[in-house]
Each structure stands twice: as C-alpha cells, then as structure tokens.
Amino acid sequence: MKPSYVAAIDQGTTSTRCVIFDRQGRMVSVSQQLHHQYYPQPGWVEQDAEEIWQLVCQLVPQALADLDATADQLVGLGITNQRETTVVWDRATGLPVSRAIGWQDTRTAPLLSELTNGFDVSELTRRTGLPLASYFSGPKLRWILDSDPELRDRAERGELLFGTMDSWLVWKLTGGLHVTDVTNASRTMLMDLETLQWDDELLACMQVPRAMLPEIRPSMGNFGLTREPVPGIPLTAVIGDQQASLLGQTAFERGEAKCTFGTGSFLLMNTGTEPVRSRSGLITTVAHSVEGEDTIYALEGSVAMAGALVEWCRTALDLIRTPAEIETLARTVDDNGGCYVVPAFAGLYAPYWESRAQGMVVGLTSYVTKGHLARAVLEAVAWQTKDVMDSMNADAGTRMSFLAVDGGMTANNLLMQTLADVLDVPVVRPMMAESVALGAAYAAGLAAGYWPDRSMLRSHWHRAAEWRSTMAAERRDEQLADWHKAVELSIEWGRRPAGGG
C-alpha cells in the first residue's frame, strides 16, 4: 500500500513553496522559488500575482516528483499565504487587472481618512479588531478602484473579483471557486469580527462592491478538488501565514503564543473563543475556525521589517553577500557602538501604528563601523519584538513565561541570544523552525482526518535550542530608553511638513 501525505502551498512575501509532510509531521519534500518585488515609487510595494500562480504550477508537480509520489497519495492540501496583499482580477479571463499591492505598501497612508469616508475610527476598530492603517487590504482595494474609473464600473457589474493571495490561488487551483477563510478576511478591514461576515456599512464607507468579494468560509473544511496544475487533490484548509504558524507551534490553548521571524515578525497569542480587545496597540484577529466549532481568536503584534531589514543591508547597502553573513559581521564587535536603527520603511506597525513614520539611523559617530551597524540591525528586530511583547503582556494581564520562535531568521543564533537578553525570558526554537507550512499541513490533515485530533500533533513538537538572558537589568533599561527615543524621532520625522524640516 502506498504511503499517504499532506501538502501545503506556502505563498510568502518573497517566495512560494510546496511542502509535503508525512504522518509524523516530517517534511519529506519541498520545492521553492523566489518571485519578483516591484518598488515603482517610495513606499510602494507590488507583486505579479500571475507570476506567483505560474510558480505554483511548477512547484506542486516538482514536490510530488521529488518524492516519487502521485496526487492520489495526498489526502489533503492546505494553502497559507501572505495575508493583506491585495489582488483584483478579471472574472472571465482570470487575469489580474494590475499588479498586486503588497502588505508593506504605504501608498494609502496619507489618504486613510479619505478612503474610509471619515468612518468613526473607534467603531471601525471595534467591528474589525484593526486600527486604521495602510497595512490592511480594504484601503488598498479602494485605492485600486479609485485609480481607474473603468475598474470601478466593471467591479460594480461583477466583472472583477477581489481577494488576498489565498483567494487568488484557490480560484486558480479549483477553476473558479471564489472563497477566502476567516483568518484572511479578518485582515481586510471589511469583516465584522463577531459575525464573521462582510459588513455592509464598512463596504459602503470604503465604496467596495459586494459583488467582487469572496465567500467567507472556516479555515478547515472541504474546498473541493484541484483542477490545476495537478488534478484531484482535496483542498482542505486555507489559513493566513501567521495563524498557520500558531498551529504549527501547536499553540492550541488559550495563552499560548509564538513569534515568527520572516520578512516581518509576528507575535500571536491564542486568546480562546472570545476576542480580546487590545488596549495597547495590538490587533484582535481570528486564529482559526472549524465548521461546527467555536471560532478561536488571537492577539497579534505585527512588525513590518525583520528579515527584510537584513535583505536591505544586502541589496541596498552591500554590507553582506548573504543574509547569514549579518551574524558574522555583527560578531566583529561587542555592542552597537551607540547606534540604533529604526526600520520604519513601511511606517511603524504594532504597537505604534504610525503609517507616516520613516526609517532612522541614530547615534552615528566616526567610531561606528559596519559591524556596529549590523549589530544595530539585529537589535532593531529584538527591540521591536520587546515593544510588542510588553503590549501583549499588558493586554493579557500576565507575563509570558517563554517565547516560542520560528521562521528563517531563527537560524541566526546571535539574534536569538539578543532576543533573550532584550525580552528577559527564555527563547525556544523547535526542531521544525518552518512552522508556517507545517501549520497549513496540520490544518489540512485535521480537516481530512489524517490526524484524529490535536493531541497527536503535540507529540511532533520537539525543542531544538533555548537561549536565556545574560544582560544586566540596568543595561537593558538604558538601551530600551534609547530605543524609544529613536522611535520618537522616527515618528516626528514622518510627521514633518512635506518638503520641510
């Protein structure tokens, strides 16, 4: 008898992967390719959705071929994706009408009040769990429709469809099913967090035609069979990437949390079946849902620049040749030399939500070398995480006892030690650091009955490494104060009059 597997399509910010897992949660095949990013203007970030689909058409057959497996050996396929990236495509041709607007894109920042027609911000946050920010999909969609009167007319007639990357891929994989799941819908600023349905008043205020919206479904369930690029695979889960990571870390119980370090960094805490309203600048979001069960919610702190900051050091500054070299360079010095980097390239996300904040490097002297700058870059990732964790502890009314981490940046041991020093809690990395794809596979496998329950998945989680703080409390407090001064400068600089000082 042939062995059976579950698969995940992990559609990320910079690359797309197809990953296949066995019953023990082991990764047995992976195929991956990068896709292009476009930066046509300062603050604009775009992608080609059709290019991403063509990559999926290559990657799924490749992952099966590398395993010498066939489609009938896959009992379930899960899709996980970068969440707020916004795609509009033609219902008849299946082609995008423009490039997708990336989640980091800030073009809507100065227009947010206009794009939401002055809708009461506190009421918007109450309904959606989201602050008014350029991060989310609704304002991006409004901007696309406003950019060309013909697009709005076609959208009103039902000729155009909107979706985040999950909807786009499900449409292409199934030959025309237009759906999303609650985790992705919760990032649009168009869904009511309690009813889990599109909100007519929010649609009206952002002038979004309901005809172009996908049907909202639970994260785990029957999404039909694939038609392309490999026919006959059961599509059994759709879930946003950070919510997938929470599942991949087996954070099934209220109060359990994780932080993923990828292009950005994202700290999520499972808050159970009731949405917890943040008082400290965090997002209230959906963690996952299963048909017939209570929806699970989460608190989230989102940081735009983590791995992307290291990539900037490589591509824009030419400080390093590969991302891994940032650790080697940072280890050439013992501290940051008084230098701090505030990576507000896409504004500041949680807990500040300052869309107009701009990047800063402060404390430069003739003493500072590229090694100090490299260390300041890694420390910026840690300090941003510290701000989010402090907010999460305040909202949850408790102190996190440790931080479970995943994502590509967790291979950087200096960053992990810096995190432990800054957070003053143990930082724990599991054996499977790529929890996003694993979580999507877990969701698909649970829905397909591949695994009988969540308890079995717990047995797959194994600790690989742990870091504990070695920093004196006085030094931590001094550096945190300096970091906050740098953040204030970043916000002040972004608020200055256009063209002025």
Summary of the model, kept short:
With 501 residues, the chain is an alpha/beta fold. 35% of the residues lie in helices and 20% in strands.
Describe the structure.
The protein has 501 residues and is of the alpha/beta class. The protein has a domain at 5-242: Nucleotidyltransferase, domain 5 (2-Layer Sandwich), CATH 3.30.420. Helix content is 35%, strand content 20%. It is built from 16 helices and 20 strands. The chain has a seven-stranded mixed sheet with strand order 14-15-13-12-18-19-20. A five-stranded mixed sheet has the order 3-2-1-5-11, with helices on both faces. A two-stranded antiparallel sheet has the order 4-7. Helix 9 crosses helix 14. The mean pLDDT is 93.
| Unreliable runs | none
Strand content bin: 15-25%
Q: What is the CA-based Rg, rounded?
A: 22 Å
- Strands of the widest sheet, in order across it, are 14-15-13-12-18-19-20
Q: Gap between N and C termini, in Å?
A: 72 Å
Instruction: Label the CATH architecture of the domain at 5-242.
Output: 2-Layer Sandwich
Average of pLDDT: 93
User: What is the β-strand count?
Assistant: 20
**Separate helix tally:** 16
Shape category: globular
The CATH class of the domain at 5-242, by name, is Alpha Beta
Observed structural traits:
501 residues, alpha/beta, Nucleotidyltransferase, domain 5, seven-stranded mixed sheet, five-stranded mixed sheet, 16 helices, 20 strands, globular
